[in-house]
Amino acid sequence: MAKKPVTKIDPRKELSPYLNHEFNQQKNSRKGQAKISASLSSLQAERRRSLRRRLGLIMTVSILAVVGLGYYISPLANISTVKVVGADDLPIKEVVKVSKIKASDKVFDYLFQQKDLSQKLSKKYPEIQSAQAHLGHVNQLILQVNERPTMGYLKDGDNYRKILNNGQIGSKSLTWSKVDQVKPIFVGYNKSGSLKEDLKLFNSLPKNFRNQVKLLSGNTRRNSQIIFVMKDGNVVVGNVVTIKDKVKYYDQIKVKAGKNSLIDLEVGAFSRPLTSSEKKAYGIS
């Protein structure tokens, strides 16, 4: 009986696919574990950085709060000086007194009382539209006063008072040297009603004409009459109803009328030289 041929099998060769597969799985598993470990380490590092930032912020805020509180309760926070800016024609000491700012007060208290400060000052002085407090040096308070625009001046005896943009009259009498002579002077206005009406009318006139007006006279013969004394020495008389439409002809008329003329625009338009008494009455030399 013949012997069957014997087939030799190499176990390592037969098992190598399985061994390689298991090795690859273990290798991939180790890679995955390494990635997870790296991600966890990165997350932990980010958390530590975030915690340090939060702690740093908390410490910074706490230190600033302690320093701020220490400054507030210390004498350094008490007002040492008050500097008033913007109230050129108002008595500085009186303004500070009306504001009720005292040396024992804290600087920061007034930084949060702007509205109350404005109300106190504007109630006493019509000239003041608003006021704000600012920190100057360590314990200096700067009081910034914003005055209302001046539309003209009301002659008050030998002095003058500001006519403000809201129609109110300034609280202080000014000498002629303090008057802005570009603005018109209102003379002979004893009633506030007529002053406001004429001021409103004046502001509605063309700017070119307004700039030539030196004075408005309230000494009129009729309530419907308005009188302008011009900077060139002429006097313009008009009607409050029609003057707005007629003043555009002034530049043409004055060329023909000459200097120191009365230009009547009430009914029609004509001119004549001013008399000596009229010149004296209107302050024209």
TrEMBL record:
Cell location: Cell membrane; Membrane
Entry's Gene Ontology cellular component terms: cell division site; plasma membrane
Domain of life: Bacteria
Keyword Repeat: no
Residue stretches making up the POTRA domain: 77-148
Topology in membrane: Single-pass type II membrane protein
Keyword Transmembrane helix: yes
Function, as annotated: Cell division protein that may be involved in stabilizing or promoting the assembly of the division complex.
Protein name as catalogued: Cell division protein DivIB
Gene source species: Lactobacillus amylovorus subsp. animalium
Gene: divIB
